[in-house]
Amino acid sequence: MEPTLTRKSKTTKSIYRKVFFALFSCFLILGCSSARKISGNDTDTGWTKLFNGHDIKDWFVKINHHEVGENFGNTFRVEDGIIKIRYDQYGNFNDQFGHLYYKTPFSYYHLRFEYRFVGKWQTTAPPYTILNSGMMFHSQDPRTMLKDQDWPISIEFQLLGGLGDGKPRPTGNMCSPGTDVVYKGKVSPDHCINSTSKTYDGEQWVKAELIVQGNKLITHIINGDTVLQYSRPTIGGGVAHGYDPKYKQDGKLLNSGFIALQSEGQPVDFRNIEIKQLPITDR
């Protein structure tokens, strides 16, 4: 049998209950808030790091005038969690355009990365290469490239820096070595198509994204803004030289290929290179 409670003891017990439930509610609210925060971070799932921040063992090097796998002049190096492209061991540049390829091809995907231009341009490189680099995709396998092939048959997500002269110089453009694309409803006659991006001067990091849906639609994004769209990448066109003719099958639609970072005379850094594979739709 419970003892009979006085009015005072009943009041005290009631106060304790209110305090307990108030504290319990606070903990519950904080717990839900934390859960929501974690859940919010988890929505950005499905991404895989192509660059591990330590080395480039998962990548192939191919530089013009050199065999595949020869990282001439330590062009592609990893320091401070960054892939750095440098030419301090070159001497004369001698059109030694290079590319660093991830080891496997992709077809439907969302790629994101950050880049910045740094240091001094290699003065013996062609003038158009100043503050100029790129991310190649739908590229031929680097192991099919000949020793003196300058550019891979591919599509280029071209990256440009502002020249500091106040004139517009967009980044996230499209260039087409050995390929063609359909832009605004027709095959583009131009080797490069400018995007609508802003101009980015100096040594600032720029966020770039590439959404590739096989040969259906390709989207370029710079710092969150969609700046260019086109479709039907196809082998054709010119610009690439020194290739094995059996890989230059003009008219062949490109549905997949390798991804590569470009070196063409301007020091540049890359970091946070990640990919999310997308569902494959009917081709």
Explain what you see.
With 283 residues, the protein is mainly β. It contains one helix and 17 strands. 34% of the residues are buried.
How is this structure best summarized?
One of its GO terms (molecular function) is hydrolase activity. Residues 46-276 form the 3-keto-alpha-glucoside-1,2-lyase/3-keto-2-hydroxy-glucal hydratase domain. The chain is mainly beta.
Q: What are the key terms here?
A:
283 residues, mainly beta, Jelly Rolls, 10-stranded antiparallel sheet, 13% helix, disordered N terminus
Topology:
Layout: H1 7-42, E1 48-49, E2 59-63, E3 76-79, E4 82-85, E5 98-102, E6 108-117, E7 132-139, E8 155-160, E9 173-175, E10 179-183, E11 186-187, E12 192-193, E13 206-213, E14 217-222, E15 225-235, E16 258-263, E17 268-277
Antiparallel strand pairs: 1-17, 2-5, 3-4, 4-17, 5-16, 6-13, 6-17, 7-8, 7-16, 8-9, 9-12, 10-11, 10-15, 13-14, 14-15
Strand content: 25-35%
Quaternary structure annotation:
single chain
CATH architecture: Sandwich
Tell how many strands the DSSP assignment holds: 17
Distance between the termini: 79 Å
Shape: globular
Helix and strand content put the structural class at: mainly beta
